[in-house]
Specification:
The protein has about 450 residues and is mainly β. It has a single domain, classed as Porin. Helix content is about 10%, strand content about 55%.
């Protein structure tokens, strides 16, 4: 039980609220949410997606203020036969997911700053716990019955909440080498902060005992085990609380190229090196003994390569395509990377159409592909490929201000896993199935400000 509690609290906060990766949040702008393909961007969000493309902006200052609101439900269904409930939901609510982009462009030079949650950014709340925790109490009736004390029921109160945010502070310098080629170098400082708040309490059972519980009422399990001299079980059944945090920092070098081989066509390439992050545990309370204060471990953000193309089909119609390849297997996730069969990637396409000079409509599609070994998936932490649709619009108020609105909804592939079931005495009784599903919706809004000359 102690080990399971630790793992639950660790993975609860690894909430990637974009649909594309195991760790990295690619949804860094409202433009992304409404188009899903931004790798060849030459707009203000190129600070993140294509820094070398910023030299295409007009001279002056360009500012993008973005926010997203994200709702996610992770559902685990378990056929383990003794559970009181067989469906468990984890709610992830992210009311504020901010991104800021600031660019100063002067002739061939563009300097930029970006801020946003590069990973995490959400709070996961499991109000009923998870099967891997619950099952350990669900077998109590059969365990105690095997001691000669008939028991038919159990109950417990389990809840966990975790939050995670990896804030990134990015600086770039881009320069037009020729009329068609530009390059940029940059770096991102990442500050990671995870928090954990969870408990297991009020474990109750109804054993029949002629002296201790002749009416077979529900009584505290810890009290019962102590009374019959089972001090080890009594300690395991006692209420347990965890209040801990993990913090760490990392540094990401960023290289970028932009190429305009023909009128109306833009090509882009970007490579972000691996962000090495070592997290240090800061414990306020830990009844499990599994969150030692000062404990250190690795939780990297993988390197990734992005390619992008944008083409003007007609003056009012534009198409784009993006490809991202994530080097997950090279990251250090304290051993979990061993269950990644091959690196993940995504492929996106998007269309924009100018309805009028002031209104632009857009839509995009994103396909996400993972190749994960069965050992990677569990009720505690699981990832599935997805097909994502994004739609939205831009409203140009005047030469200085425009507004972006976006909505995206990933359609996740469901997954399942077959698990063995053995009794507390080690007798194999067969297998049961666990199923994983997820629903996410995201809304985005941005205000873009353009100041300065041509």
């Amino acid at each position: 039980m102690k080990k399971a509690l630790t793992v639950v609290l660790f993975v609860l906060v690894l909430v990637t609220i974009s649909s594309a990766t195991l760790v990295t949040n690619m949804n860094q702008s409202a433009l992304y949410v409404r188009l899903l393909s931004r790798n060849a961007s030459t707009d203000v969000d190129a600070v993140y997606y294509n820094p070398a493309g910023l030299v295409a902006l007009k001279n002056g200052w360009h500012i993008g203020l973005n926010n997203q609101t994200v709702f996610q439900t992770k559902t685990v269904e378990s056929d383990f036969p003794f559970l009181n409930t067989h469906s468990f939901d984890g709610k992830v609510n992210v009311p504020v997911f901010p991104d800021l982009f600031v660019v100063y462009k002067k002739d061939k030079l563009a300097l930029s700053f970006g801020f946003g949650p590069g990973a995490g950014g959400g709070t996961a709340d499991f109000t009923k716990g998870l099967p891997s925790i619950e099952w350990q109490f669900s077998v109590l009736p059969s365990l105690i019955t095997s001691m000669g004390l008939p028991t038919t029921r159990y109950s417990t109160d389990i809840a966990f909440k975790g939050s995670s945010v990896y804030y990134g502070f990015q600086l770039n310098a881009a320069y037009a080498l020729t009329d068609t080629i530009s390059a940029a170098v940059g770096a991102r400082f990442v500050s990671a902060h995870n928090t954990y708040d969870g408990y297991i309490r009020s474990v109750m059972i109804n054993p029949y005992h002629p002296l201790l519980n002749p009416t077979q009422a529900m009584i505290p399990a810890a009290q019962f085990f102590a009374a019959i001299g089972q001090t080890g079980y009594a300690a395991m059944m006692a209420d347990k609380t965890v209040d801990a945090a993990e913090t760490g920092t990392g540094f990401t070098p960023i290289l970028s190229l932009n190429f305009k081989p023909a009128a109306g066509l833009n090509l882009a390439l970007k490579y972000e090196l691996k962000t090495k992050i070592e997290l240090t545990t800061e414990t306020t309370k830990d009844d499990t003994g599994m969150f030692p204060d000062g404990y250190k471990f690795r939780s990297d953000i993988p390197a990734f390569l992005s390619l992008g193309a944008a083409y003007e089909i007609l003056p009012q119609l534009r198409a784009s395509a993006s490809f991202n390849y994530f080097f997950d297997k090279d990251a250090d996730w304290s051993g979990r990377e061993a269950f990644v069969n091959s690196n993940s990637y995504d492929l996106a396409v998007g269309l924009e159409y100018d309805v009028t000079q002031s209104i632009t409509l857009s839509a995009g599609y994103l396909a996400t592909v993972f190749d994960l070994a069965p050992g990677y998936q569990s009720d505690l932490s699981h990832d599935m490929g997805a097909n994502t649709l994004g739609v939205g619009a831009r409203f140009k108020l005047n030469k200085t201000f425009d507004i972006d609105l976006g909505f995206m909804s990933p359609m996740y592939k469901t997954d399942k896993k077959t698990l063995p079931y053995t009794t507390t005495t080690g007798v194999y009784l067969g297998q049961y199935e666990e199923r994983y599903s997820r629903k996410t919706t995201a809304f985005a809004v941005a205000v873009n400000i353009h100041l300065g000359g041509e």
